[in-house]
Amino acid sequence: MTTSSLHLSRSLLIGEHLRRSAHKAPDKEAYIFGEKRLTYRQTEERAIHLAGWLQGRGVDYDDKVGFLLFNGIPFIEIFYGVSLTGALGVPINFRLNSDELQYIIANSDCKILFIDRKLLPSFELIKDRCPLVQEIVVIGGETELGYLSYERIYGEETEYVPIDRLNGDDGALIMYTSGTTGLPKGAVLTHNNLYINGMNQVMTAGLNPDFKQLIVAPLFHIAAISTLLYPIQGTTVIHQQFDSEQVLKTIEKERINFIFLAPTMWQMLVDHENIGNYDLTSMKRCSAGSAPCSIALKEKIARYFPNGELRDPFGQTEMSPVATCLNPEDSIRKNTSVGKPVVNVEVRVVDEQMNDVPLGEIGEIVYRGPTLMKEYYKNPEATEEAFRGGWFHSGDLVRMDDEGFIYVVDRKKDMIISGGENIYPAEIEQVLIKHPDIKECAVIGAADEKWGESVKAVIVKREGAELNEEDIIRFCQNQLSSYKKPRQVQFLDALPRNAAGKILKKALRQAEEGVTGG
């Protein structure tokens, strides 16, 4: 088949990306998951069939379709199928608790929800609070709950009608970011945003039809889902989850030449006891993102992947996501830097009045470019604030050196990155302060050998209260997703504050660094 129409062929659309690949390389292997292998033609056929089924169920331009899924071929088919209808996909983090799931499903106005069978118990708890969801489709077999099985869709007759009104500036995905106030924001990413981010990476890394990537990061993350737009008729191998031994086996067996991993994953991979038994010479491009990579780790990656050039991309969901990249030639020399802006992305480092700060001084990094999100869904106030002064405000405090390399100094909103997951302290603090024996609290990131950072709660008890670390962790257990729970608890008589009464988290972090530094 060819692209849908002359009009659609002119636009940078996710669905047309697939259809162009199917036209140019129909029999090339596109996606591999376990024993299942799909060519571009087969992927296109299934995506078009699914798009026709969605249209038959009333899904139209600008509707919302949620998917609460583990990594696998259905995720790919749904990603493309939804995009062909002109609807917006809403990938949902399966690690969230029921209340968090309910908020995202309801806030995004999801009309249909695709869900993995193993995740149904969480949804069952909140389905009555999701009245807009008209149909549930279950991946992974039949259920006794009356929901439609995903594979049954492909046994039905469907007819797909291309959406000629669709263009690159229309929304393609709503990606929910962790909320600094406990409520996540839905970043609306357009077809242009995602397509151009993919092309930026193709240009930056010099990708070609020999591209063969392995995806192990969860596809609900922008860092993983965005890589689906990288291949130039290349091949994508997918694992459901990260397992060091399986990654090494797959690299050798499939001759993988590109992989993106969080530093935590890289560390587990290079520390695997059997790594020396595998042929890893096919790897040409290694990518490490979501958190800083130490020189020691980079040296290990270089030792075990001698042909693999290491790149450190940096960005955020609202930038689709890559904004800067530290390239291989500068990886060691500028190790603590996040590199320079990628092609098609403009940056400035500014003060509170939007004045450029002098080189070497700290300011907020702000962005412009065709990969910048359209808006925060149903949140005009947050959108207006984020686009203040005509640039996107990242919330990251950085400095730029005289060669143009950017260094992240602090996270303006105190974000914690644990194992590649973004965690915002305010959300955890709101849970902790509900405890009747807690007078005040603050949450910070603590150095963690395995995860990079872990959550640490600093607590001031009410007078006469008897609390210990286990009490605090147990209290959070049923109110927060597992990865957000405090792993460490410290009790103080009082929290440090400035003259205005604001808690000085910087002082808490410095004290933590003093402790861990010995």
UniProtKB/TrEMBL annotation:
Limits of the AMP-binding enzyme C-terminal domain: 427-502
GO molecular function: acid-thiol ligase activity
InterPro entries reported for this sequence: AMP-bd_C (IPR025110), AMP-bd_C_sf (IPR045851), AMP-binding_CS (IPR020845), AMP-dep_synth/lig_dom (IPR000873), ANL_N_sf (IPR042099), ATP-dep_AMP-bd_enzyme (IPR050237)
Residue ranges of the TM segments: none
Residues in AMP-dependent synthetase/ligase domain copies: 18-377
Entry keywords, A to Z: Ligase
A Pfam family recorded for this sequence: AMP-binding_C
Cross-referenced NCBIfam families: PRK06187.1
Similarity-based family: Belongs to the ATP-dependent AMP-binding enzyme family.
Official protein name in the record: Acyl-CoA synthetase
Species for this entry: Pradoshia eiseniae
